[in-house]
Write a structure and sequence with these properties.
This protein is about 25% helix and about 10% strand. It has four helices and six strands; from the N terminus they run E-H-E-E-E-H-E-H-E-H. It has a four-stranded mixed beta sheet. A two-stranded antiparallel ribbon has the order 2-3.
Length: about 220
């Protein structure tokens, strides 16, 4: 197997390590995470290391940069792009006006069991016109929820940040995917190839510290 190299020839200073949480190099939590338990420091790092492993297994690759999507969080050229996470607060979900990544007045997110443990993952792309955002977020959802035996969450809700020009239809499609998954217990068949790098033979070899090939990361909470 071969790694997919970055076509931009970045030097060693271009990326933070996977075991570094640099607030200035990750996106600020957006509307989808508002009012929930936003992860930072080692809690964020543990979840994001696991995201990297799941994305590698399911080939969720940003084909513009030629790397595992999780690496975007470490790319100092795009300090406002990548994923932020929050553990969902059920009381906040029940509040009127709680956001689901859709306009005000839209229905709330699909319901889960009262004791379900839910992670929210909000993706901020590099630009408002990123053409991969739909495929990347769907691929992320499939990676997280298709490999639930690898983590402690019953559900991972994925949305794109509202700065994207197509955030409303993308998030509506993600919510529909989520609803089908919750209703059937099975992942719906992909309609877009299933991931941004579907069909690639990849391996974890991006040269960044703090991310062994398989560290068995479990979220520490």
């Amino acid at each position: 197997m071969v790694s997919v190299p970055s076509p931009f020839g970045a030097d060693e200073d271009t990326f933070d390590a996977y075991d570094e949480f640099v607030p200035a190099h990750v996106p600020a939590p957006g509307e989808f995470l508002d009012g929930h338990d936003v992860l930072a420091d080692r809690r964020h790092l543990a979840v994001h290391r696991l995201a990297r492993e799941l994305f590698e297994e399911r080939a969720v690759y940003d084909m513009t940069f030629g790397y595992n999507l999780a690496r975007l969080n470490c790319d100092t050229r795009h300090p406002d792009a990548g994923y932020r996470y929050a553990v969902e607060d059920a009381d906040r979900v029940a509040e009127a006006g709680a956001t689901d990544g859709l306009p005000a007045g839209a229905d709330g997110p699909p319901e889960v069991a009262a004791d379900a443990r839910v992670l929210r993952a909000e993706f901020t792309p590099t630009t408002a016109f990123c053409p991969q955002s739909d495929t990347l977020t769907k691929g992320s959802f499939r990676a997280w929820n298709g490999l639930t035996d690898r983590h402690e969450f019953d559900l991972v809700r994925v949305r794109v940040a509202p700065m994207h020009q197509r955030s409303v239809p993308i998030n509506a499609a993600l919510r529909e995917l989520e609803s089908t998954f919750l209703e059937t217990g099975e992942m719906p068949a992909p309609d877009d190839g299933g991931g941004s790098g579907a069909g690639l033979e990849t391996e974890i070899d991006d040269g960044l510290p703090g991310a062994p090939e398989s560290d068995g990361s479990q979220t520490p909470f």
